[in-house]
Every structure is written in structure tokens, then in C-alpha cells.
Automatic annotation (TrEMBL):
Similarity remark: Belongs to the cytidine and deoxycytidylate deaminase family.
Top-rank taxon: Bacteria
One Pfam family cited in the UniProt record for this chain: dCMP_cyt_deam_1
CMP/dCMP-type deaminase domain residues: 1-125
Record keywords, A-Z: Hydrolase, Metal-binding, Zinc
The protein, known as: Cytidine deaminase
InterPro entries to which the protein is assigned, alphabetical: APOBEC/CMP_deaminase_Zn-bd, CMP_dCMP_dom, Cyt/Deoxycyt_deaminase, Cytidine_deaminase-like
Length: 127
């Protein structure tokens, strides 16, 4: 986890955007089951148009035709670890059944499987 945390931290690169917008104050690193690491940054602009760093990293992963996430961590600009929001949890679960087993880093000394963060899936009917 430590190496993935360092990669996520290095991905953080805050930038001010037009009006009140900003980006890059959260960085995410995910490792696929194939051992490849993808990163992303958040985009936060007015009217909730932005995206989470996890979503950006996931888009990079999908661009490379991978869907199985072994481990994921997101880091705020102050170095603290941010657990994924509900939307990102759901997104990971929708990509691949394997991702129930994704290790989600929720704090420095704690990581849990995605299925523990989403205990009652609504879509089992379509597995
Ligand atoms: Zn999110």
C-alpha cells in the first residue's frame, strides 16, 4: 500500500481554474490485477460538473482495456487518505465482478474490500 500511496501523493498537483474551479488537489493511484498502475486527478468546478480522482484513474485503466482493480487509494493535497465517495464505489462495482474484492485504502492503517463498503448490491440479478 505504501508505494501506491506515494504514487497517489505524487499525482497531486493543484491548479486553479476559472472562477472558483480547481483541479488536482486529490490524486488517485490504482493497481490492476495485472500489476499496472494508473493515476488520476480530481476536477472540481461549479455546478458539480467535476469528477473524482478515482474516476480519472479508472478512465485511464479502461483506456488500456483493463477492468480488474487490485487496490486503490486517493490522497488529498495535505497527504491524508480519502475513502472513495459513494459514486466511485458504485462505479468500481459496475466495471467488473472481480472488483468486489478490490482492496480500498480508507486510512493509513486500514484497507477493506469494496464489497464491505457496498454490502447489499442492487444489481445481483444481472450478474
Ligand atoms: Zn468519487
Amino acid at each position: 500500500m505504501k508505494n501506491l500511496y506515494q504514487i497517489a501523493l505524487q499525482t497531486v498537483s493543484p491548479i486553479k481554474l476559472k472562477k472558483n474551479g480547481e483541479a488536482g488537489h486529490v490524486g488517485c493511484a490504482l493497481e490492476t490485477v495485472g500489476g499496472v498502475v494508473f493515476t488520476g486527478i480530481c476536477i472540481d468546478v461549479p455546478c458539480s460538473i467535476g469528477i473524482c480522482a478515482e474516476q480519472a484513474a479508472i478512465a485511464e485503466m479502461l483506456k488500456n482495456r483493463e477492468t480488474k482493480i487490485k487496490r486503490i487509494v486517493a490522497v488529498y493535497e495535505d497527504g491524508s487518505i480519502l475513502p472513495p465517495c459513494g459514486r466511485c464505489r458504485e462505479l468500481m462495482s459496475q466495471l467488473d465482478l472481480y472488483n468486489e474484492n478490490t482492496m480500498v485504502v480508507v486510512d493509513f492503517e486500514k484497507e477493506v474490500r469494496l464489497k464491505e463498503l457496498l454490502p447489499e448490491r442492487w444489481d445481483k440479478k444481472w450478474d
